[in-house]
User: What shape does this take?
Amino acid sequence: MASSTSGASWSSLHLLKFNSPDELLSYVNGKVKELEAALEAAKAELGRVRAEAERLMEVERVLSEVLGVKPSEIREIDVRGVRVVMDAKATDEVAVYEEVVASLQETLDVLKRVRDEVVAPLVSRLRGLKGVRFVVEAAGVIPTKILIKFEGQ
Assistant: This one.
């Protein structure tokens, strides 16, 4: 099984160790499945929030037309690189979910490409060799460097 040796919870870069080619591929496949599940959950929540936002926008439009009252402007401030939205509306929540969905999709696409173009071919070629181990540097879940080691090294 993969073991994390540094930085997994407090840095975007961390190290993983695998004792066989199949263990490495299993890890990457597991991360792909986790990302796919997270992406589907985020899309489902986005759909729910978007429907809520659309209902709210319709109510605001009706109030604006009937009463001549415009909804208050959203106040957004930047605090040391963190955007803080005061009096947030459902549309703000939709925007956040859209950003998360896009980020998850991008990460999933990159991880699948790394799996299909790098990890799977490596595993296919090295599977029969005894004593092959891997040390993987990863940024989040994306392998950025793969060190191939042999027993005794």
Observations:
- The longest helix spans residues 21-67.
- Strands lie at 3-6, 13-18, 75-79, 82-86, 132-139, 142-150.
- The chain has one domain: 3-150.
- Residues 3-150 form one domain.
